[in-house]
UniProtKB/TrEMBL annotation:
Cofactor: Zn(2+)
Described purpose of this protein according to its UniProt entry: Negatively regulates transcription of bacterial ribonucleotide reductase nrd genes and operons by binding to NrdR-boxes.
Comment on bound cofactor: Binds 1 zinc ion.
Family matches, as PANTHER family: TRANSCRIPTIONAL REPRESSOR NRDR (PTHR30455)
Record keyword Ligase present: no
Organism lineage: Bacteria, Bacillati, Bacillota, Clostridia, Lutisporales
HAMAP family: NrdR
Zn-finger segments (unnamed): 3-34
InterPro entries membership: ATP-cone_dom, NrdR-like_N, RNR_NrdR-like
One matching Pfam family: ATP-cone
Protein name per UniProt: Transcriptional repressor NrdR
ATP-cone domain sequence ranges: 49-139
Organism: Lutispora saccharofermentans
Family of the protein in this entry: Belongs to the NrdR family.
Domain of life, per lineage: Bacteria
Length: 151
């Protein structure tokens, strides 16, 4: 790390501690040349996720859109806010672990449906009806029959 005082490239770490709720490491360094101390911060670089929509538009990933979709599906259902938050956290973690810069919105919808199906059947059908764009009652009944035959 380059010393801000003399420009030397050699320094040693004299103290390290977590900062900002363990998302940053604060390091106190001492220059090997001039012995002056300075502070640096180390943070994981987050790669921005771009979501590719059905019509090929692209927009930055927004966690709140996943949470809001799940909340709507779970309205008046016995699903806790903690369960919804955990589901959103789990999906977000999986998205970042894919290490892809662009992710199709269809993939996110499928991830939500898989988790909702395990959590609450009614919430699953609600979400699926919007996500799969059910055109009529027959499409809706087909999905219900699949659910009943598997359960």
């Amino acid at each position: 790390m380059k010393c801000p005082y003399c420009g030397c490239n050699e320094s040693k770490v004299v103290d390290s501690r977590p900062a900002d709720e363990y998302t940053v490491i604060r390091r106190r360094r001492e220059c090997e040349s001039c012995s002056k101390r300075f502070t640096t911060y180390e943070k994981v670089e987050e790669m921005p996720l771009v979501i590719v929509k059905r019509d090929d538009r692209r927009e930055l990933y927004q966690r709140n859109k996943i949470v809001n979709g799940i909340l709507k599906a779970c309205e008046k259902r016995p699903v806790s806010v903690k369960d919804i938050e955990d589901m959103a956290d789990n999906i977000e973690k999986e998205l970042y672990n894919m290490m892809e810069k662009e992710i199709n919105s269809k993939k996110i919808g499928e991830m939500v449906m898989v988790r909702l199906r395990k959590l609450d059947d009614v919430a699953y059908v609600r979400f699926a009806s919007v996500y799969k764009q059910f055109k009529d009652i027959n499409t809706f009944l087909e999905e219900l029959n699949k659910l009943m035959n598997e359960g």
